[in-house]
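Re: the multi-chain job from yesterday

Posting the exact lines I submitted so nobody has to dig through the queue logs.
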Amino acid sequence: MILKPILVGALLASTTIAPALAQENTDITVVLSEELDLVDPCMATRSNIGRVVLQNISETLTELDVRGDEGLKPRLATSWEDKGDGTWQFKLREGVKFSDGSDFDANDVKHSFDRVFSDQITCESKRYFADTALTINVVDGFTIDVKAEPAQPILPLLMSLVTIVPSETPMEFVRDPIGTGPYSMTEWTAGQQIVLTRRDDYWGEQPEVSKATYLFRSEPAVRAGMVAAGEADIAPQITQEVADNKATDFSYLNSETVYLRIDSQDAPTDDIRVRQALNAAIEREAFIGTVLPEGTELAVAMVPPTTLGWNADLTPHAYDPDRARELLAEAQADGVDTSLPIEIIARTENFPNVTEVAEAITQMLTDVGFNATLRMVEVAEHEQYYSKPYPESEGTRLVLAQHDNSRGDPAFSMFFKYASEGTQSGVNDPKVDDLIARASAATGDERAALWSEVFAYVHDEIVADVLLFHMVGLSRVSERLDFTPTIATNQQLQLSEISFK
Amino acid sequence: MTKMIGQRAIASLLSLLGLMVLVFFLSRLTGDPAVLFLPIDATEQMKQEFRALHGLDLPLIEQFGRYLLDLLQLDFGESLRKARPAIDVVLEAYAWTLPLALITMSLVVVFAIILGSLAAFNVGGFFDRLISVVSLVGASAPDFWIAIVAIVVFAIGLGWVPTSGVGTPLHWVLPVAVLFIRPFGLVVQIVRGSMLSALSAPYVKTARAKGVKNLPLIFVHTLRNGMLPVITVIGDQAAAMLNGAVIVETIFGFPGIGKLMIDSILQRDFNVVLAAIMVTAIAIFIMNILIDLAYGLLDPRIRH
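And the result, structure tokens for all chains:
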């Protein structure tokens, strides 16, 4: 019985002929590494969804300029103002239409937030408001007041993470996203492709790309090959092994930071000398140009250099195996059991060559006298070790992890990774907690200065973890396009930034 | 005949039920989908809400009871990741896997039987050796490597076929070709071995003495007797293919059941995993019945 629909489906599916390979001049094809499960605008902060949806289909009130240095720019909001007492007032753009023809106004903004906070739907952007209660007050058609409790100094920045949907959008995931962006989704064939078509009634400047077809191939060699064969124009996230064409392959910092999370509540890593020894034992430079692509930078903070409060005075911990052995010997002399097992937990397919990186680190630690072993696990198991509560162990575990922050502010990283209550934090230090709390609540130069202080304190004073690399992304871009991928390409791929040579 | 099919159907249904119970409980031992669906810094409250929304906070036995009740109404539940009915997701993927398996296996059967029989007839000759070398290489080369090399040579280098994807018949050439190689290598060896013993039977000598020509001798007289072990191996290979071809699907971006199943397992999308396994199992049960019928057709002694 069940076979009949399958057979019919098979027959139908096998006779469907997809659009021909030949492309119009301004149509492009983007080949992504992962298929999208959902295209709901409220999931756009998930990077694989964001690359298609964010600022292409759906727009946000504000937008962070990650390519230049304009900072936070207006998008659907034209201006905003701090009214004090945790309340921000946003003036909205007039004359904007959704792709279904309806007009954009303050009620749409309110509904978009209601939807994010609803318990009927699991919206990804909700996480940015974890401890903040928002009250949205529609003042008039194009003015809203947003009150945050406790006060949220980066509220306008947070607005760059919430996509605006029409007020009729149901409290469940939609399969036909409606937005105010320059493109609308005209086709979604699950498992095969998504097509965005340029709108004629977009409020802003008309982008050059008229149609974008997204395909999904998980094999980097195939993605790169598709651009080489002219089947695609942009292939993000290729690996250095296949990036062999200087004319088409771009490398850029991709906002990911790789580090070893140390649990400083565990023996023997509760001793700072052991943590310093871990840092001194690893020859970070040896990885670059070998198992990691050229251009990879040594990390001194959890966030990439484009982030607010970046501390340019910090230098990476030097590679000094003799010093590492001395530190271990000193600790041992003071009664620290440095022979306790240290298990490194790394996740398969976390980034290209993660196994080689993890193996080399394990070897380097063993060389200076650590009792280190490596265990490669898949994503679900990795998560059990990475997030609290941490499982018991005989000695301790170091979790090799990759953290992404292209949002411009350390607030999206530092609490989670360093505060005592942070989900992935191995630190329990009142001074860190206090600094993070003050930095999160501060504004302007004071905010930058405080974040700078946090970076210095965790890196130099308490040596909280083993920061390793700011990672490089590699993308192949067809020579007919005028487009340079940047740090933002990891989270979004704005079609309006693409033009033709 | 009908009785045989009936008995097989009942036995299959019981195995299917057992399989379902096993997969339902084992998959739930492997981890919490909430952690994988939600971002890594999600709060405990977000995780609770997610579990409540999808009934994952209920006692396991209650979850199972609800699942069974829904299943009786042919409702396989929603996909956690895709927010749509799991069975739709699975059948969509199966609609790609089934023709891929059918086309590939048909080619394997036709080519393996013809070439294997000819090799057996000409045992020790140049053609026989050529077939042996080709089939051994085919059966032992890793398909991910063949797939990538095929793309580099035929799609990027020569530009004869598209690199990957689906759509036009040309898109099917590389996936089918890569998928063809291994079962072909295996089946052709079995055909050759089986035909060798069939060709040495006394009745072949009699037929020759009667003046039967070579081709009818092979394909009319001997082949039917040499086919029984071949059918068994073909059944095995076809079953593997009905499970999806993970590597070929992954490399060629072919939206089949193999990759869907692996992705769903990694993401702990339980309903899709269950639906995929059940649909695959049903397909394999049906195929086994067909194989049994084929045995009976080839050898009347088996019918009873």
